[in-house]
Specification:
Radius of gyration: 28 Å
Largest sheet: none
Low-confidence stretches: none
Order of helices and strands: HH
Mean pLDDT: 87
């Protein structure tokens, strides 16, 4: 088992590179999740701004031409 971890004498280079790769992938995952939450919050804010304007426009006149 020790020979597996030493990887023929190159373990000192291989294992840190695996660790660095795992750290970078975890950081990318966290950054992506943070950006997704930020984008979703911005979308909800924009949707809330558009909804009142849409209701004002829809209440002015019904499709058959009568006022509401």
């Amino acid at each position: 088992m020790a020979e597996f971890f030493s990887m023929g004498g190159y373990g000192a280079y291989i294992w840190p590179s695996y660790a660095m790769t795992a750290i970078i992938l975890a950081a990318l995952l966290l950054a992506s999740i943070r950006e997704l939450k930020s984008t979703e919050a911005m979308f909800e804010r924009l949707k809330a701004q558009v909804a009142p304007n849409k209701n004002k426009n829809n209440n002015k006149e019904t499709p058959d031409g009568d006022e509401a």
